[in-house]
Specification:
Mean pLDDT: 82
Organism: Carpinus fangiana
Radius of gyration: 37 Å
Strand content: 5-15%
Largest sheet: 9 strands, mixed
Shape: globular
Protein name: starch synthase
Structural class: alpha/beta
Distance between the termini: 94 Å
Strand order of the largest sheet: 3-4-5-2-1-6-7-10-11
CATH architecture of the largest domain: 3-Layer(aba) Sandwich
Pathway: Glycan biosynthesis; starch biosynthesis
CATH superfamily of the largest domain: Glycogen Phosphorylase B
GO molecular function, one term: alpha-1,4-glucan glucosyltransferase (ADP-glucose donor) activity
CATH topology of the largest domain: Rossmann fold
Helix content: 40-55%
Low-confidence stretches: 1-55, 126-130, 194-198, 608-616
Number of domains: 3
EC number: 2.4.1.21
CATH class of the largest domain: Alpha Beta
Length: 685
């Protein structure tokens, strides 16, 4: 039975339970006062008032003594009050926890908003680039409208576009006046800018099917945006042409406007009208092509995966080239992507190069040779190409199914350079092992091929200025990482054990992981006191399997599971972890290994074929700098080996982490350098 002391200790102030001896006691009337003489007798007043005091007192004692039944009632009342108090305490605690979670959620949302505001301010203050580029793009897109409405010729439009690009500084200084003028006044004003400076950067036009944050399916979207921003930060002018999907999120487009004119494009034996929408995204000029007759091509629930994908993207490719010619654009490079816009290559060299684009060259980026698209040769005539001319072994004829044409192969053959996106494989290994039937073609055009690593956005992912973190840190001052680690442990109710190694695991698709092997590795590590945090950011179909996989591991007090996409918490996981387990070192979508290195967490990769929890990468002169760095540092370590090194040689491990944090693997680094070198090479052809 609980004593009064233990009962009171269980109930926090201000809630107090009545003492068992006084609970439900009726008010007692005040008794007459009495004084005791020195001999101990009561005074005469008391004796007169109660001549039979002794006998009455005895009788009263009998009358006031509670019966067993009353005692049981009182005990029942006490326990009822105790249970009610317990329920009140539990309810208040539950409300308190809910309030704390709401407060945390509000704080995270506030942090996200502050981070976005600071990011926009940083972009605005980033120097000469941002404001002037925005002005430049508004002027260029106005010129597109002017030439399509027939006010000027394509030749004059091309000259004025070059003038705007060369005179960005002068245009920006007069922006308040210029941008307020109507089309006729704008033309008159532009013609006053007759002094031309020497052009130092490239003019690049992407013809592509994705761009972050407008429409994103795979790695193409972040690549187009990341590379384009890096190029513009360093003085090049980049434009993107996209289909106008109905599922596209256009809230991020600044100055979205519809050009009040149609232009026509050839398809299936006829000319068909298109509308153009223009705007600016992250300082990049974007044009959206909207077919009028074939309006259903991009009015769908998803981007890819339809039986008429060849027709859809061939139409878009031809319409993009028609738009470039009709608007007087003369880019240095047409940058095309994957099979979806590979048809631009043969279209350009067979039809459009003679339409004022003699100085333009073609660069193809291929993210995956697994997707090539085979089609009947006669369908090439839909966009105006000659099937017999192209259905040849040295052109578009597929190497295996020779009765079909291979669209991606055509892109390789007809491009001046081909950039293969791979962070870990060399050119030779890609040709031998990952060409998916194009080995002969890639070997023939080997001199065209260059390998580029993926990058990441270090304006958002940088621990030295990350607004989501409780305290910032860098390779020079790592104190903040300890604070982030403690904050992460506290948030997930993990024991605050300073000596425990904290391992984060980002789950995207559990089908790519050997779950049995991973479970064994986790169990072995937790026996050493290692703490694990699994963060599932996969699609709904994969989440159920991921949760099923993790349920058994969750019985361990050192394992936690985050089943939501929380941007603030994901930053804290990278910052608080000592190791990040990732599915591959080549992660073009989430860039988990790159972010881990930046945040001072060692990336350890695992794939479904790894029986020892390792992931080897190429280490030769044809590999990327990232591949060479990761091979010499973390690429050949299993998790147990990494734990051993942390335990046995902490100073060496700390130095490896600091060296990794000092490396630059953002879009502005090696990825940018490879592309500019490729652009330079093809301009000299």
């Amino acid at each position: 039975m609980l004593t009064a002391t233990s009962l009171n200790a269980a109930i926090p102030s201000p809630l107090r339970l009545p003492h068992p001896c006084t609970a439900h006691r009726k008010p007692v009337k005040a008794r007459a006062g009495c004084c005791l003489r020195s001999n101990g007798d009561a005074n005469s007043f008391y004796n007169k008032a109660s001549p039979n005091a002794e006998s009455e007192g005895h009788d009263n004692a009998k009358m006031t003594q509670p019966s067993n039944e009353e005692m049981e009632v009182k005990k029942g009342d006490i326990w009822r009050l105790f249970r009610e108090a317990q329920q009140n305490i539990l309810y208040l605690n539950k409300q308190r926890l809910m309030a704390i979670e709401e407060l945390k959620k509000s704080n995270r949302e506030k942090q996200l908003l502050v981070a976005r505001i600071k990011h926009l301010e940083a972009e605005k203050q980033a120097g000469v680039g941002k404001d002037k580029l925005s002005v430049c793009w508004e002027l260029l897109l106005r010129l597109d409208s002017i030439v399509l409405t027939g006010m000027i010729s394509t030749g004059e439009a091309s000259d004025l576009r070059r003038l705007v690009m060369d005179q960005v500084v002068g245009m920006a200084d007069a922006s308040n006046d210029i941008l307020q003028k109507n089309d006729a006044e704008l033309l008159a004003e532009l013609r006053h800018f007759s002094d031309r400076s020497k052009k130092t950067g490239f003019c690049i036009v992407h013809i592509c099917t994705e761009m972050e944050p407008l429409v994103s399916v795979g790695s193409l979207a972040s690549y187009v945006t990341g590379l384009s921003c890096a190029l513009q930060r360093k003085g090049h002018l980049v434009e993107v042409i996209l289909p106008k999907y109905t599922i596209m999120d256009l809230d991020e487009v600044q100055g979205l406007r519809e050009i009040d004119a149609e232009y026509y494009s050839y398809f299936n034996g006829q000319l068909h009208g298109n509308k153009i929408w223009t705007g600016v995204v992250h300082g990049i000029g974007v044009s959206f092509i909207q077919p009028l007759y074939y309006s259903s091509f991009f009015n769908r629930e998803k981007v890819y995966g339809y039986s008429d994908d060849f027709e859809r993207f061939t139409y878009f490719s031809r319409a993009s080239l028609d738009y470039i010619v009709k608007s007087g654009k003369q880019p240095d490079v047409l940058h095309i992507h994957n099979w979806e816009t590979s048809i631009v290559g043969p279209l350009f060299w067979d039809i459009f190069v003679k339409q004022g684009l003699g100085g333009t060259r073609i660069l193809l980026t291929c993210h995956d040779f697994d997707s090539q698209y085979l089609e009947q040769p006669d369908k090439l005539s839909l966009c105006g190409l000659d099937p017999p001319k192209l259905h040849r072994p040295d052109r578009l004829q597929d190497n295996t199914k020779t009765h079909l044409v291979n669209i991606l192969k055509g892109g390789v053959v007809y491009s001046n350079k081909v950039v293969i996106m791979s962070s870990i494989h060399s050119k030779g290994r890609i040709i031998r092992s990952f060409s998916h039937g194009l080995e002969h073609t890639l070997s023939t055009h080997k001199d065209k091929l260059v390998i580029a690593p993926c990058g990441f956005d270090n304006s958002i992912w940088d621990p030295s200025m990350d607004n989501f973190l409780p305290e910032n840190y860098s390779a020079e001052d790592m104190k903040g990482k300890v604070v982030c680690r403690v904050a992460l442990q506290h948030h997930l109710a993990l024991s605050n054990n300073a000596s425990a190694v904290l391992v984060g695991c980002i789950i995207t698709e559990v089908s790519d992981i050997d779950l049995g092997n991973l479970k064994a590795v986790v169990r072995s590590a937790t026996r050493r006191g290692v703490q694990f945090i699994f963060m599932d950011i996969s699609k709904k179909s994969s989440k159920d399997r991921a949760l099923e996989f993790i349920q058994e591991l969750l019985k361990d007090e050192n394992v936690r599971f985050i089943n939501e996409l929380d941007e603030a918490l994901s930053h804290l996981v990278f910052a608080g972890s000592d190791i990040i387990v990732c599915q591959s070192f080549h992660d073009p979508v989430l860039q988990v290994p790159l972010k881990a290195l930046k945040y001072g967490a060692a990336p350890i990769a695992v794939t479904s074929t790894d029986t020892t929890f390792r992931h080897f990468v190429d280490h030769n002169y044809e590999s990327t700098k990232f591949s060479q760095f990761i091979s010499s540092g973390f690429g050949r370590l299993s998790l147990s080996q990494a734990l051993d090194e942390i335990e046995n040689n902490p100073s060496r491990w700390k130095q490896k982490i600091m060296d990794a944090m000092g490396m630059d693997f953002s879009w502005d680094a090696e990825c940018y350098d490879v592309h500019v070198s490729a652009y330079t090479a093809i301009q000299n052809l």
